[in-house]
Amino acid sequence: MHRHKQSLRGHFLRAATIGVAGLTASLMVAGVAAASTPADPPGGVAPHFYNGNVEGIRDTGSDTTFFLMQRIGDLYTGAGLYGCTLNASAGQTLYNSSDPASTTSNEEFFCLSGQNVSTTDVNDNWDRTEVTEGVDDVGSGAGQNQLCAALSTPLTVDFARSSKPSTGACSTEVQTGYAKDGVPIVSYPINPNVYGTSTTAPYSSINGGVVGPVSKGWLPGDSPAGPYTGSPLNNIANNDNGGGASSTAYRLWCATDSSRITDWGSLTNLGPSLLIIKASTTSGSPTVTISGNFQSTVASGQTVTGTGIPSGTTVSSVSGGTLTLSNNATATGTVNLTITTTTKLAVGQGAPIGVAIRIMGVNTASGTEATFASYAESGVSGGGCSSNMDTNAASDPNPATDTGDNSTPHIALENNSDQMNEFAVGDWPSPDFVDQAIEVSTTLYIESNGVLNTNPYAAASTIDGTSYSATKVEENGSNPTSGTELQNTYPTARTLFNIYLSNTVRASTGGFLNWICDGNTNFSKGLDNTTGLNFDQELGNLIATTFGFPRLTDESTAPSISTPADGIAAPNTACAASILVNTTSGSDQITLASGAFPPDIVNAGGLVGGGSVGVTDANFPAGTTVVSGAGTSTLTLSNNATATTTGVSTSFSGVPAVTAVANPQT
Amino acid sequence: MSIRLAARQVAASVAALAAMGAFSIAVLSGPAGAAAPTQGQSVPNSAQPVGTFTAGTPFSSGQGINIVVPANSLFVSNSNVNILECSAPNGVIPTSPTACNGDTIQGPSVAPNADGSINYQNATGSLYPVYFTPDSSIGDTTSSPKCGNTAATECILFIGDNQGDFTTPHVWSQPFFVNPTAGDTGANPGDGNLPEVPLAILLPIAALGIMGGTVAVRRRRSASRAHSSLV
Fold it and tell me: Taking CB atoms and an 8 Å cutoff, what residues of chain A touch B103?
């Protein structure tokens, strides 16, 4: 550390000397034009942590954020085109005096001191860092484990992409949350009948193989083209029917006992035109029986229709699985009846229709899966989804192909609906498109809302060349929007993070993560000479529009709901600096246990545009800001503390998350 | 103010005056019988206020509106469409996805009907909320695309398959304006138009212009005849 300070001091002196000399000479020679040549930026300190070394940094983990981070990484790497001037011969003076001497064998390794040119950009990757994304072990949990060396990795991991919070894979994980997302349930409203009639078991037994779009409310007996007498699947809740293990979500994904929902009728056959399948009638008898009980909405006086039931017949009485009609049946057999009820059943309480629900499993290393497993678990302690959401994942329905590698439950990678048809093709080899369509149309999957909104291909499943968009199913009656995700009112709202280790984070990593977190508040990003747009505009456009994730910055405010209904915290302020400070009741000053506050916690009016750094601390009133003391061990604030404490977590709005790196100058 | 904008304001004022000033309207139907929109076309009256609103007033941030597109050959029922706000200064249709604001994309899935037509309210059971942007409550930053109540911040809705690729099937709403509203409550809803310039002012000005032009033409002709007679 001592050596670093000496190096930095020496650098600053040299930079100042060269800068002044250079500026003087430039003014004499070139006049106004040379005044635009920027001075070397400060070294080794937040927010950029420049060290003058060309480095490569690599992230791994989340699939949800993989493509987004590729684009952000490319944008940042591209910004380096206008970075520092690199050493090109032996003996040149380097920006970082801690670096080895410039030689012919390390040309292009290091930034030169005082050699910026008019086009040099000192706020956007001046160090010329190169960012890459790993794909060797996909998933947020895997990425965090690799970062923490809890899982082997073929290449170095500098930070983890994660669509779920830190798992505590190691104690020094720090998360920077730069965007929000949601994990909607999706269904596939395909009409399989456009591909014909199924002639293969088990699907040939559904309505004689004539199958319509079940998620749109098609019931056996309805025309596949409509209209449909069932209810479209619009909502699956984790808090209905009393919540917990009684919720529809739990019963679908997590329950393994008799409460498990396995039939589409539970979701869509709700009445008032209630279909009762496999009812036993006896010619000359008014008694009808079914396996199980009639639904609670079936009552005397309701009209009953069906094969062998005389016109005008009504329910005389109902008890358990036995119905007494007002007329005798005219035939003996097992038939489908329709009872016109006066009220509708709740989702999850419907009568079976003989169409199995297919739960698609999802890669258990992913944050998407972890988020939804927690939602489906519905607050049950140690329930069926306590490990993952794949408890009830469906297997190949075709006995002929349900063998070998294809005999295990289908587990898809997260966030790609196209896999539904890929599994279906494996189960029902082409040209059996009708059975492929039935398999996909009876499947429930989950997928990142950002992906669904921005990638039509990954948001659709294809049958015989025709693409069918996935349809979002509401969760607890809510749809995913920027507002509901930011406010955590959407049940599976989640924060998208980049996670680093405070004890090993490199300067180049810290600078990159801060560049993402700051929205032209702490420092001004420059113009992208390739596009003519400001880098921050490009960054925001990538996150919000190209990839569909509402952006979080170091100025984002905390939502009133910190934890959505899925039970996983989804913070909005994790892109802002957070430091443990000491407070004294009645004092407007805060201190650190040791060291100094980072210089990017600027004095009053020091933010871009003249704003002040906001302070969120349990011991200070709302609206408190930093007044003075930037870069020292004591900050003076605009209000007095209400309590005396040590080590209280304090958030600094307008200051990006990474305030220190492990080795600033190496 | 552009001629086009002025013309639109005149049209708005005509509509407003025809209904005796500010009033309430219940939109009962879409553009029945309207021509089938084509790729990239701006569809008139496709962004429709619903319920009670004040004509000749920009939409109010947070106001729920319906999106109605007539039958067409662009959209198919098995491919959902996305709807989001894009910046359209002076009502000019955007040419780059960077003009669009992903923070304003609709929540529920929107499936076109079998004939390609779209009715947001029918498809989702809800209304599309329009926002004055940038709006931090939906995640915008200062550099997010602007939708407001000036010609420079005029707004338009992208309605199509892929907002990141303008070569895929899409149409645009009519350009419109949005007023900022605290809390995005949609209070004081409008129809997306700027306040009308009253005809009581415009008509005399137009009449004066016509009269002036007529006088100028006559003088020029008279001068021309005089010149001819001298030659």
Answer: 482, 544-545, 550-551
Which chain B residues are closer than 8 Å to A519 by Cβ? 141-143
Helix runs in A159-299, H state only: 248-253, 265-268
Average pLDDT, chain A: 94
Distance from C-alpha of A434 to C-alpha of A198, rounded to nearest angstrom: 6
Nearest to B143 among A469, A520, A552 (CB): A520
Q: Residue B24 pLDDT > 50, yes or no?
A: no
Domain boundaries, given as residue ranges, for chain A: 41-182+494-546, 185-269+347-475, 271-344, 576-656
| A409, A394 Cβ separation under 8 angstroms | yes
Which 149-168 residues of chain B touch chain A by CB within 8 A?
161-164, 168
Close Cβ partners of A266 (under 8 Å, ≥ 6 residues apart): A347, A348, A349, A350, A351, A352, A357
Rounded distance between C-alpha atoms, residue A322 and residue A346, angstroms: 22
How does pLDDT run across A430-481, given as a tens digit for each residue?
Answer: 999 999 999 999 999 999 999 999 999 999 999 999 999 999 999 999 999 9
Pairing verdict, β A304-306 and A333-340: antiparallel
Give the residue, A505 or B219, on which the prediction is more confident: A505
Give me the pLDDT at residue A7, please: 45
Would you say domain A41-182+494-546 falls under CATH 3.40.50.1970? no
Cα A51 off chain centre by: 33
The minimum CA-CA distance between B144 and chain A, rounded to whole Å, is: 7
- Most A CBs within 10 Å, among B86, B98, B130, B163, to test the A interface: B98
Nearest chain B CA: its distance from A193 CA (Å): 14
B207 and B146 belong to one structural domain: no
Do A482 and B111 make contact, defined as CB atoms within 8 angstroms?
no
Distance CA B167, CA B40 (A): 9
Task: Work out how many domains chain B is built from and give that number.
Answer: 2
Q: Higher confidence at residue A471 or residue B11? A: A471
Among B63, B105, B135, the strongest candidate for a mutation testing the A interface, having the largest count of A CBs within 10 A, is B105
DSSP, collapsed to helix, strand or coil, labels residue B8 as: helix
Gap between the Cα atoms of B41 and B64, Å rounded: 23
What digits encode the pLDDT tens for the residues B93-137?
A: 999 999 999 999 999 999 999 999 999 999 999 999 999 999 999
B203 with B192, same domain: the answer is no
Give mean pLDDT, residues A614-633: 97
Domain span holding position B150:
3-196
Partners of A590 in beta bridges: A583, A635
Task: Report the Cα–Cα distance between both ends of chain A, in Å, rounded.
Answer: 11
Tell which residue, A481, A305, A203, A172, has the closest CA to residue B102: A481
C-beta atoms of B139 and A474 within 8 A: no
Torsion of CA A456, A462, A465, A467, to 10 degrees: -40
Angle between helices A66-79 and A507-517 (to 10 degrees): 110
Q: Quote the pTM value.
A: 0.89
Residue in chain A nearest B80 by alpha carbon? A469
Let me know whether B179 and B204 are in one domain.
no
